[in-house]
Amino acid sequence: MLPRQQSQSGTLQTSFSLVPSDAHLPQEEPRSNSGQVRESPTESASSRETWPNVEAMLAKKMESGKTDNDNAEHSVVRRLSSADKISLRDIARERVDLISEKMHHLSDEFLEELKSGLRVILDGNGGSQQREEIFILQKLVQNRTDLTAKTLLIANRVQLEILVAINTGIQAFLHPNVTLPQTTLIEIFVYKRCRNIACQNQLPADDCTCELCSNRNGFCNLCMCVICNKFDFEVNTCRWIGCDLCSHWTHTDCAIRDGQICMGSSVKSGPGETEMLFRCQACNRTSELLGWVKDVFQHCAPAWDLEALTRELDYVSRIFCGSEYNRGLRLFWKCEDLKEKMKTGVMDSSMACRTILGFFQELELDSPRSIENGEGGRLIAPQEACTRIADVVQEAIIKMEMVADEKERRYKKARMDVEAFEHEVEDKTREAAELKVEKQRKKLQIEELEKIVRLKLAEADMFQLKANEAKREVERLQLIALAKSEKSEEDYASSYLKQRLKEAEAEKQFLLEKIKMQESFRSQNSGGADQS
After folding, report:
1. Is the dihedral of CA 354, 358, 361, 363 positive or negative?
2. What are 145-164's pLDDT values in tens digits?
3. In the sheet that 261-264 helps form, which strands lie side by side, from edge to edge?
4. Can you give the pTM of this predicted structure?
5. Residues 26 and 217: beta-carbon distance below 8 Å
6. Torsion of Cα atoms, 382 then 383 then 385 then 391, to 10°
7. What are the helix (H) ranges across 252-348?
């Protein structure tokens, strides 16, 4: 099968962050996500690039207006009255006609802020709260029974874009540079069209009637992996493996992880021989991998740069690392050797490309089928037999040289590892000595601190003793002061009484004198009267 090519309708060369929609929900039927395990929005795309920098600007704009992380959808509603506010949850749970009527009266600026707020949530960089928010929104949308192709026809365009973005988890539907017809958005929402904007094929793609395409809603066999149900835009690569029979595609990583790449017999291998095969999960039939890898490299390798060629050789090494037959092992060793040479700068990408293509030609000549076709059942002449024996010997010598080169490479690698280990041991020893010195220094510092602490404790005891003595002295002085105060009060009372007594005596004397004077005055007055 030829390498995976770009979709015919694809015009975008980027990938999107998405949350896989439920692949088992019937179209136009009630949606439910019970018992469903979804991935994080940031982990849903198989490969990830970024949209233009407007995403970052919108994210900053939303982040600056955010005041409550628990209500992320309210962060875009700021300048309207409370009666006109529409949140993402309102769109997800309210009737289509009611929300559509409200959105007709809203400004374009507010609708754009609403979309940018959802883009920030779908981006998933805000942590668990944003992931929880998108899961809540998806649950609200997928549990509704009224979201059919008929009811969505009356939806506002921004409302429809938000519903599709929530249902698929793809923020590209909200991007200002992406404009899709309303009918296309409705078909994507009800799983009648591929959600990959670069594909957009009607589903099931190519009118496929296999069980996978019939039962997995939203699955497109032209751009999605049959195992993880994700898509990306990698083409002309060994990252994707195509089935020779049903033309469904699978990520190489997914196939390796799920054991879909293994040893087995095929129609191309001889009796009793095994080779590395890929078993398609869609049709459960096998495809031979060596020829597929050869076709990919012959069609695409001349256009790869050093980084791409290294990455593709790594994919081939991972595919054939468990190979148990001669050609697969030789291909694995060759890929490892070329990667090592390109890594060390011994070989550039063009030379490595010519080398691997020539190696594929050698493998084709050494294949059992080519040898069988060459014999044709005829008798071999002695000279030809000698030639073939010489070829076999030469091949054995080449194999021995390859094994020797591999052992030498492994020896060099082991030697480098040993030297690195020795350097590491030296570094660790030096670090241990430094740590020991540091430990001794810390120990001395601790002892010094302990001495200071003991001294301070002794000073504290001494000050406490002096404080106790001062307290007792204060109590004694207080008793003396109290006694003196009482005595002073008694003396004052005694002197006061004496003074009052003196005053009383003086007043008494004064009164007596006054009485005497009055009596003498009266006696004088009475004597004068008698004389007169």
Report:
1. negative
2. 888 888 888 888 888 888 88
3. 261-264, 275-279, 286-288
4. 0.53
5. yes
6. 160
7. 252-257, 289-300, 306-320, 326-344
